[in-house]
Amino acid sequence: MNICTRTLSTAALALLATVGPAAAVAHAQNDLNCSDFAFQEDAQAVFNSDPSDPNRLDADNDGIACEDLPHRATATATAAATAVPRRGVNAGLGGSTGPADFEVVGGVGLAVLGVGLATGHLVLRRRRRAAPGRRH
After folding, report:
1. DSSP string, 16-30
2. Distance CA 94, CA 36 (A)
């Protein structure tokens, strides 16, 4: 394997090893889920501060964030039974309806990089087999 191929392979592997996990960590630090809130009113306040819903707190797009979270008790309200959380976004087990745009672009970029590396490897192997008598 020549020096150029080794350099490109090393750079590609370093990029894959560092950028992939770093993108997920950067996204996770800013994302709020329903499980981050104790009461629906708190989640609604965050949702109301940015109705574009970057945290995806309103799963069904009805303007109400984290609908299955309990409400704060008021002085006139009687104690109500706490709802048993169901699996899903509103139960606090998520908050995401799918990957963000930058995650899709990053995934496609990494997939293209992987296909390019595999193609380059196959081309080099075929060239080596086609040139009899050469040793590397």
Report:
1. HHHHHHHHHHHHHHH
2. 10
CA–CA dist 97, 59 (Å, integer): 7
Encode pLDDT of 1-39 as tens digits. 577 777 777 777 777 676 766 655 555 556 788 888 999
Strand boundaries in the chain, DSSP class E? none
Tokens 């394997």 belong to residue = 1
Q: Could you read off the pLDDT of 92-125 as tens digits, one per residue?
A: 455 556 677 888 888 888 889 888 988 988 888 8
Question: To the nearest 5 percent, what fractions of the chain are helix, strand and coil?
Answer: 50, 0, 50
